[in-house]
Design a protein that fits this description.
- By secondary structure, this protein is mainly alpha-helical.
- It has 4 helices and no strands.
- 18% of the residues are buried.
């Protein structure tokens, strides 16, 4: 309800970026949930120890799947860490917003808008990482 049009606009864009990123994270989470990484690694070990040329294509496919699961897991962990950090940063922005509202500083409002814009850009980087991890998954 505060008269911070620039900040409000940035928050709207940030929320849309966060929703898009969360949607990608959900897809990655579902992909990882559909596979047991330990079972895939065991199967890969079996195929690598067997000296059967007829299973080379299968071994290569399982190897690609194992690598995609490892990358996806790493990316999802990064997402969780980054979301926790961004949540803390949003708390900081809220505290600044309250301080600026008490002082009615125009420069403070612009700084807050820039802070939210920076968070949105960081969210975009997280989203790009999600897209990359999803595109590298064998079943993508």
């Amino acid at each position: 309800d505060l008269p911070f049009d620039e900040v409000s606009g940035e928050v709207d864009v940030f929320v849309r970026a966060a929703e898009k990123t969360a949607s990608r994270a959900q897809l990655l989470y579902e992909y990882l949930s559909d596979h047991d990484p330990r079972a895939v690694e065991r199967r890969l070990a079996e195929l690598q120890s067997a000296d059967d040329p007829s299973k080379r294509a299968l071994r290569d496919a399982v190897e690609a799947q194992a690598a995609a699961l490892r990358r996806g897991s790493t990316q999802l962990d990064r997402f969780y860490t980054e979301m926790e950090r961004i949540a803390v940063e949003l708390g900081n922005v809220r505290a600044e917003l309250l301080a600026v509202s008490a002082a009615s500083e125009s420069a403070g409002q612009q700084r807050l808008a820039a802070d939210v814009r920076d968070l949105r850009e960081q969210m975009g980087a997280v989203s790009a990482g999600m897209s990359e991890a999803l595109s590298e998954a064998p079943e993508a």
